[in-house]
Structure formats: structure tokens, C-alpha cells
Design a protein that fits this description.
- By secondary structure, the protein is an alpha/beta fold.
- The protein is built from 15 helices and 15 strands.
- Helices cover 35% and strands 19% of the residues.
- The strands form two sheets. The protein has a nine-stranded mixed beta sheet, with helices on both faces. Strands 3-2-1-4-5-6 form a six-stranded parallel beta sheet, sandwiched between helices.
- Bound molecules: 6-O-phosphono-beta-D-glucopyranose.
- The site of 6-O-phosphono-beta-D-glucopyranose (BG6) has 4 residues, from loops.
Length: 483
């Protein structure tokens, strides 16, 4: 194991919901990969806590299985896995009762970082916070990590913030939006604020429009009952797409410091216009040849929840007034692909004759798959025969351009280590979450008042035709959804 990373300080990480799906798929495999990278210091411990009646050995087997299933096999070295497992403990704890809390209190060590990951339903956030506090398990330096959904509207988000605030200060609360941990998302800030090239052009004078696409090929099968109460707007737009939008649109913070960054993001959310209902398209996937319909997946024949949404947004500030931002996200689309495209305006005058509507320069930031960037520029087509212009990509794939580029850490790995370092830059502050809900609530309310139904779309495509029209009518086109 050759370490190129600086280990964090010794910690005890307690994962409430330690036997759940997120722990199995993301948190535990991610911690193992950080261990392999040499980032877990000697003495760091991971303590699973849940209702299930495991002992240490049983839980270690669970963690071992999770590693075997979710970490690539080239990394299944038995000696490393065993060493990692020796840091794992388990304690049955009842989030709503008294069982296990005394045991947890006596397990805690002085002078190590204490972090508590609430990988549980939001209704348990309050009871967990209260018990950690009452049993003296959490100290003033302890951190709690909370997962989305953080509320389902402004009222419930405020209530959650209030209940956490009874036991923890804001600087102790890490609200995860895993999109912020994605490597390319962080790169967005590096590209914008680490180069001189883009920032002078990053405004409505030069940017024609921005497209943000988060497309998924899977349906909602398996989580239909949760999803049916959320829909794409609560599940993706209020959080992930909103965060991407903030990073694209925010002013340069004075420093790369948590509150400086989050202050700027908050200003973007507050400057977002309320979208016109005719600038929103909601869709629901039909059944395909061998795929069930959304309603079948959700087990709700009458469902009016959207599995796709596209919207045109405006930001009322000096930088962005007049540049539309188009968002779209949906399930059962052609490919799993996420990208942000900044489409620049044409030069004001073409010295090469008629070149109307070309929009030659596009900066594409690919979030997944094949993370990287692509800048489309106009050049002369090679060869004799006059000045014919073509667009070519300056393409940078992380996998090709960077050593280890094909082994980019998962978002969760990065974020959990940030918790241990005490760095909140990539976590949402309470007021940010509330502002995002304050913008989202009236949109949802208007659908409910109008009893608006989503339009159906075929699986495996680009979503409803109406979403194409959203851009066509402005003389623009969505980029193709392709991996
Ligand atoms: C989750 C949503 O937050 O993000 C899911 O609840 C969605 O519905 C997922 O599938 C997408 O994340 P990623 O990292 O796979 O793009």
C-alpha cells in the first residue's frame, strides 16, 4: 500500500443504519477504499449500529460481503480486508428506545474525533440527536452526517433543522448531497476559478444558455413507494440539480472556505426566478417491450408523480439575467449520463460569410460516465477549397489524461473524509436547504392545485417530446443523451 494521501486524525465513526442499503453499497465499501489508500489512521474505528442483533463477528461478515460485492475484485486482498475488518465493531441500538445507548456511551474514547452517520429515515434524526446528547455521547466537537431527503417541503425541512439544532451547532451538522462529492463537480470550481480563460466570458453577454442533464436508464423499481411520494422534483431537482446550478452560476467566493462558498450558492438560489408553469415539462415513463411502466413500478395505477422533469429557469442578477438555464432529469432514459453544457454565443459578426445559428463554442463538463471535459471550438476544415468552418472537440477524459484517472474515488469516500477533516465546504448549510425548498414548494403547489398530470414517454429515449419543444421554441436544441 503506497500512500499518496494524508491520513485524517484518529476517529470513531458510528453508522446508524449500519446494516442498511446505503451502508452496504456506499459507506462501508468507500471506507475500505480509503483504508487501502492509506487515509485511515492507526486506531480509527467504524462502529455499525442498528436494530439487528449482530455481534462484531457477524457484522464483520456483513462488511466483508459488502466489500466483495461493491469493490472491484482487483482490490480484494485478504490480508487488507482482514486488517480493515479488525477496525469494525457492532452494537445493537434502538433509535427510539433505551436499548444500546449505555453500551455506546462506554464504547466511546476520549480525545478522538466522534462522527455519527445518520443513514436512517429522517423521522429518526431527532430521536438519534436527542439520545446522543442526553447520554453524553456527543461532545462539542462531534459531527453528525445526515442524508437526503432533508425534508419534503420548507415546513418539514425547517422542523428537521430545528430538531437537530436542539442538540448540535450548525458547524457540527454535515448534510450530504452526494453530487457535491463527485470529482467533476468539484472540478467545476477548479475550472471556473483556477483559470483566467473562462471567467471573463461566464455571463449573459457571452453565454447563450446552459443545459444541465442528469439522465438515468434505470426505472424506480424497488424504491417505488418512496419515489412516488417524491417525484423527480423532490428526488433530484431540489437537491442535486440545484447544487450543480449553484456551482455553475455562483460568484467567485473570496476563498475556498465553507461559508464563503455556501454564501455564494445561497445567493444563487435566492436569485432564481419562479418558473412559469409553461416552462416546465413533467413526464412519466410508459411500459416498454420488457420493462414495466412507472405506475407498475410504483404500484400505483393512479399515480401523477413525475419520473421526468425538464424546466427552463432564469436567474435575476447582473451576471445571468437573460441567459436561460435548462434542466432535465429522468428515469428510464436512453443512457445513464450526466453533464453540464455551457453554450456560448456566436461571434457578433462572421468574417467568413453566412454561418448563422452555429454556436460553435460549447464547454461540456461530463459528470458520468467517463468523467471529463470537452470544449468545442471552431476551426477551418483542412484542405483546399476555401474557408469552410467545422467544430472539433478539445477532449479531456480524466481516465486518459490523469494517472489513476480510471480510479476516481466515489463521492461518498471523499465526503466522509471531509467530515473527519471538519471541512463543510461540500455540505449543505441549513439555510441553503431551506432556500431550495422555498423555491420548490410553490412549483409543486401549483401542480397540485391544477391537478396536473405528467405526460407519458417511451422508455429508452430522451423523455417527452414536449421537453424537446421547450428548447425548440427558443431556437435551441438539447444535446443528445448519450454515454
Ligand atoms: C439519489 C436519488 O439521490 O441519486 C436517486 O434518490 C438517483 O433516485 C441517484 O438514482 C442518482 O445518483 P448517481 O450518483 O447514480 O447519479
Amino acid at each position: 500500500m503506497v500512500s499518496r494521501v494524508i491520513p485524517v486524525e484518529v476517529f470513531d465513526l458510528v453508522i446508524f443504519g449500519g446494516t442498511g442499503d446505503l451502508a452496504r453499497r456506499k459507506i462501508l465499501p468507500g471506507l475500505y477504499r480509503r483504508f487501502l489508500a492509506g487515509q485511515l489512521p492507526e486506531g480509527a474505528r467504524i462502529i455499525g449500529a442498528a436494530r439487528a442483533d449482530f455481534d462484531d463477528a457477524g457484522y464483520r461478515q456483513f462488511v466483508n460481503d459488502a466489500i466483495c460485492e461493491f469493490v472491484k475484485s482487483s482490490r480484494h486482498d485478504k490480508a487488507h480486508i482482514d486488517e480493515f475488518l479488525s477496525r469494525i465493531k457492532y452494537l445493537p441500538v434502538d433509535a427510539l428506545g433505551d436499548a444500546g445507548w449505555q453500551g455506546l456511551a462506554s464504547l466511546m474514547r476520549p480525545n478522538v474525533i466522534r462522527a455519527f452517520y445518520f443513514s436512517v429515515a429522517p423521522r429518526l434524526f431527532g430521536p438519534l440527536a436527542e439520545r446522543l446528547h442526553d447520554h453524553g455521547i456527543a461532545d462539542a466537537e462531534s459531527r453528525i452526517v445526515v442524508e437526503k431527503p432533508f425534508g419534503r417541503d420548507l415546513k418539514s425541512a425547517k422542523a428537521l433543522n430545528a430538531v437537530l439544532a436542539e442538540s448540535f451547532d450548525e458547524h457540527q451538522i454535515y448534510r450530504i448531497d452526494h453530487y457535491l462529492g463527485k470529482e467533476t463537480v468539484q472540478n467545476l470550481m477548479a475550472v471556473r476559478f483556477g483559470n483566467m480563460l473562462f471567467e471573463p466570458l461566464w455571463n449573459s453577454q457571452y453565454v447563450d444558455h446552459i443545459q444541465i442533464t442528469v439522465a438515468e436508464s434505470v426505472g424506480v423499481g424497488g424504491r417505488g413507494s418512496y419515489y412516488d411520494k417524491s417525484g423527480a422534483i423532490r428526488d433530484m431537482v431540489q437537491n442535486h440539480l440545484m447544487q450543480l446550478l449553484c456551482l455553475i452560476a455562483m460568484e467567485p467566493p473570496s476563498e475556498f472556505e465553507p461559508d464563503a462558498v455556501r454564501d455564494e450558492k445561497l445567493k444563487v438560489i435566492r436569485a432564481l426566478d419562479a418558473p412559469d408553469q409553461q416552462d416546465i415539462v413533467r413526464g412519466q415513463y410508459r411500459s416498454g417491450e420488457d420493462t414495466p411502466s412507472y405506475r407498475d413500478d410504483a404500484e400505483n395505477d393512479e399515480s401523477t408523480t413525475e419520473s421526468f422533469i425538464a424546466m427552463k429557469l432564469g436567474i435575476s442578477n447582473w451576471r445571468w439575467k437573460g441567459t436561460p438555464i435548462y434542466l432535465r432529469t429522468g428515469k428510464r432514459l436512453r443512457e445513464r449520463t450526466s453533464e453540464i453544457a455551457v453554450v456560448f454565443k456566436d461571434p457578433p459578426h462572421s468574417i467568413f460569410g453566412e454561418q448563422e445559428g452555429r454556436r460553435g463554442n460549447v464547454l461540456v463538463i461530463r459528470l458520468q460516465p467517463n468523467e471529463g471535459m470537452n470544449l468545442r471550438v471552431t476551426i477551418k476544415e483542412p484542405g483546399p477549397g476555401g474557408m469552410r468552418l467545422i467544430e472539433v472537440p478539445l477532449d479531456m477524459s480524466f481516465a486518459e489524461a490523469l494517472a489513476d484517472g480510471d480510479d476516481i474515488p466515489d463521492a461518498y469516500e471523499r465526503l466522509i473524509m471531509d467530515v473527519m477533516r471538519g471541512n463543510q465546504t461540500l455540505f449543505m448549510r441549513g439555510d441553503e436547504v431551506e432556500a431550495a425548498w422555498a423555491w420548490t414548494d410553490p412549483i409543486i403547489q401549483a401542480w397540485e392545485d391544477a391537478r396536473k398530470k405528467p405526460v407519458e414517454y417511451d422508455p429508452g429515449g430522451s423523455g417527452p417530446d414536449d421537453s424537446l419543444m421547450l428548447l425548440h421554441r427558443d431556437g435551441r436544441r438539447w444535446r443528445e443523451i448519450k454515454a
